[in-house]
Structures
1.
Amino acid sequence: MAKYLEGQLQQEQGNFVKAIAIYKELLDKFPGNRDAITNMARCYQSLNKQEEMVVFLNGLLSKNPNNISAGLVLSDLYLINKEFDKASAVLTKLIKNKTKIPQVYMSLANVKLVQNESKAAISVYLEGLKQNPDNIKL
């Protein structure tokens, strides 16, 4: 916890390179930590080095294809860069790996909506509901 707070402090002070190093150290121990991944992505964005974050996230996913946090942040980065097919592929792969996390279905449906594929988005939502019948967000 202290390391994470140190990373946040460095980030808030604009020391993005130091913050990234701290977040990487944390992610070596806890590769699925969503907060560390998200803050690290923000640091790379502040440095205009989003592509390095994409490479890092792909590395996390190659080590663990079920790393939900890495997949969600990676798909968000692809979405920001209007790389809709890549965002869709990342999320679809998570679902094919038997992920039942509602956020993955919601993110994939949102990608489909951005691509003007409303029928595909509805299909994704329905599949998500089938896997998570009690989830009110779906």
2.
Amino acid sequence: MITLRVRGDIFAAPEKHIAFAVNTQGYNDAGFAGQVAARIWPRLAKTGGNKLGEVLTHRNGDKTYYAFVCHSLDEEGWSETPRVVREILDRLDVPDGDEIAIVLMGSGPVGLFEGVDVNAILPAMENSKKKLVVYSR
């Protein structure tokens, strides 16, 4: 469930769990994933091929970053994103009561270029069992 929507810098979020989208091809050097790779997780930039629905995890200080493999760079590559995001969220091992800061997937330059339907992804987040704080710029 979405508990709050925030316009701001997710890197400054008080939440200890940060979730965002990456692609199946493993080219994550652009968008928010590219920022994560540049700032704290260099290996994320080129992970090789990943399976749709996989989660890559990285701990940095007191925060854990969750890279949701939820789209591809192919045509229609975001079509399964709402379903995949909901499934990942519901199985994510986060303590009950902890909020997850999550990027509004598809709303950045990469998503806009690829024509992502962000309004299809938000209900998946809302219907999740996890408590989410959705960040956008």
